[in-house]
């Protein structure tokens, strides 16, 4: 009997343009959200996802056929895609939304990604989705799980190590859990969300940055995908946390206890 042909992997990596992690966050004057007129960059957990996709291709050699990145955001989000392309991705998809539009909620993002994956089925298909476990702006940490649920795929969240066996069409993932880690084996297709310990993303070299300018970016709209990004949640007001009050010194334990009682604290 002739051995069956090995299925080449097509990897999809969703990335998000977010306020840079080094920026000090401030509430905007309207108190409707944070001030977005600051430096933006790729969400750090998504950088880890792109890096892991590239490392998988380096480890598996010819078994990885393509790495495609996708983002949902305003026109400026194309810069984030170019960064991912410079890191080693092959092509990109940009679901463009107006500059003034609110950021899509996790369910809307998951629905858009499902629509993209269903479109990809008409061609080579998607075997593995690698994405950050959360975005540092809303910290929702929900999109990967929602996407796996919508697709009916397996999921391996908070991954700190990923190994893929293309011949068996499985992935072995080490997950971060409370108090330690656990190893699970999943069948492909699969959604993996990345944790900080998975890898350290590379810096894009100048030659790769120049090459990235020639790599294709395909554009879509929400209407093209049949997705509605209308928010389901309403933000009433955003305020900064109260300023911390300085502490004081006491001379003895008795004085400390007296001050605690004055503040309304009682012994249990």
TrEMBL record:
Family classification: Belongs to the ETF beta-subunit/FixA family.
InterPro entries: ET-Flavoprotein_bsu_CS (IPR000049), ETF_a/b_N (IPR014730), ETF_b (IPR012255), ETF_beta_N (IPR033948), Rossmann-like_a/b/a_fold (IPR014729)
Gene Ontology BP annotations: amino acid catabolic process; fatty acid beta-oxidation using acyl-CoA dehydrogenase
Cofactor(s) listed: FAD; AMP
Electron transfer flavoprotein alpha/beta-subunit N-terminal domain mapped to chain residues: 32-229
SUPFAM superfamilies: Adenine nucleotide alpha hydrolases-like
PANTHER family xref list: ELECTRON TRANSFER FLAVOPROTEIN BETA-SUBUNIT, ELECTRON TRANSFER FLAVOPROTEIN SUBUNIT BETA
Top-rank lineage group of the source organism: Eukaryota
Entry function: The electron transfer flavoprotein serves as a specific electron acceptor for several dehydrogenases, including five acyl-CoA dehydrogenases, glutaryl-CoA and sarcosine dehydrogenase. It transfers the electrons to the main mitochondrial respiratory chain via ETF-ubiquinone oxidoreductase (ETF dehydrogenase).
Gene3D superfamilies: HUPs
Keyword terms of this UniProt record: Electron transport, Mitochondrion, Transport
Cofactor note: Binds 1 FAD per dimer. Binds 1 AMP per subunit.
Subunit structure: Heterodimer of an alpha and a beta subunit.
Phylogenetic placement of the source organism: Eukaryota, Fungi, Dikarya, Basidiomycota, Agaricomycotina
Gene Ontology annotations for the cellular component aspect, listed alphabetically: mitochondrial matrix
Species assigned in the record: Mycena venus
Protein name: Probable electron transfer flavoprotein subunit beta
